[in-house]
Amino acid sequence: MTHRVAVLALDGVLPLDLGIPARVFNEARAPDGSRLYSVGTCSLGGRPVRTHEDFRIVVEHDESLLDTADTVVIATQEPTPDLLATGTLPEDVTAVLKGIRPGTRIVSLCTSAFLLAAAGLLDGMRATTHWTLCEAFTQLFPGIEVDPNVLFVDNGRILTSAGGAAGIDLCLHLVRLDHGASVAAAAARRCVAAPWREGGQAQFIEHVVPQDADRSTSDTRQWALERLADPLTLEDMARHAHMSVRTFTRRFRQETGLSPLKWLAQRRLAHARHLLESTTLPVARIATACGFGDPVALRRQFHTYVGLSPAAYRRAHSAPGVAEGTAAVR
C-alpha cells in the first residue's frame, strides 16, 4: 500500500522547508515507476497559512488529514515569541499534535522540534533543532537531550532534524528505512541531492578556525579512515597530528564539531553500514574490519544508534545482487 504522508503547515512556516517532504517522497518509486508515498498538505481548519515570507499559501486539507496518515511531518515554523518565552503552544495546536494517532510516525523539520517539545511529545528523548536555538531549547525543555552537532535524530516513532537541507537528509533516511538504500539513492538522484549524509554529521556551525590553519587535523582524519580496523586511541591520533592530546582534541572539535573518539565511532558505524548494504560478508568479519572487535560490540552500536540489529539492517537496506567480497575491507 502507498504510504500516506501528511504535512502540517502552521502560521510562520518556511516555504522552502514546506516543500521538502513532497519533493523527496514523491521521487521514491517502485520498480514499475509508481509512487511509494502519497503526500498531502494541511492546515488548521484548512485555512490559508501565513508564511515566514511576504505571502500566504492555500492548502487542500484541514487537520483531519492527520487522522489517516502513516507519517506526519511538521513543516518548519519559526518559534513565536510566546513559545520562546513560555514553552507553551496555543490550545488548538497542542490539541492537534496530541491527537495524532498512536503509532503514527512524527517528523519535525528544523525549529518545529519546539512544537513537539511544547506538546510533550519529546519528553525524555534525544532531539535536535537548528544549532542557533539549541541553547534556548535546552533552557525551555530541560527534560529533553538536545544534540546541536547532528543533522537528524531518529527515536523510532519520532524524528527531528536540524535546519534547512537537513530536512532532505531526514526524508531520505525515512525512504531508506521504508524501502532500502537503492530506492533512496534513486530518489536522491532525482532531487539532485546527496544520497546519504550521516545523521551524526555535524551541522554547519560557525566554529572558530584555528589561526595556524596549517596544523589542521584533516590529515589525521584521513589517516584514521584508512585504519578503521586498528584499535586507534586518542593518543595515537594526537601523536600522528604532532600535537598534545589537549590541543588535538580542541582543534578536532573546532573543525568537526565532534570529539575525536565520537567522530571515529561514527566513521566506523558508517563503514559497517556500507559493508552490510553492499556485501554479504559475515557480521563477525564486518565487526573486525570496522574496528569493533567482535559482533557483540557491533550489535550494541547498531541497536543504540540505528535501532536495528546488523542482520535486520542488512535485510532492509542491502542492494540487490551484492556478492561476497565486492567491497574493500581494511
Largest sheet: 6 strands, mixed
Series of H and E elements: EHHEEEEHHEHEHEEEHHHHHHHHH
Question: Main sheet: which strands, in order across?
Answer: 2-1-5-6-10-9
> Based on helices, strands and strand pairing, what is the structural class?
alpha/beta
The percentage of residues in β strands lies in 5-15%
Q: pLDDT under 50 segments (min length 5)?
A: 205-213, 323-330
Distance between the termini: 41 Å
Helical percentage: 40-55%
| Overall spatial form | globular
* pLDDT averaged over residues: 87
- Topology, number of strands: 10
From the alpha carbons, calculate the radius of gyration and give it in angstroms: 21 Å
Please work out how many helical segments DSSP would assign.
15
Keywords: Transcription, Transcription regulation
Domain HTH araC/xylS-type: 218-316
GO molecular function: DNA-binding transcription factor activity; sequence-specific DNA binding
Protein name: GlxA family transcriptional regulator
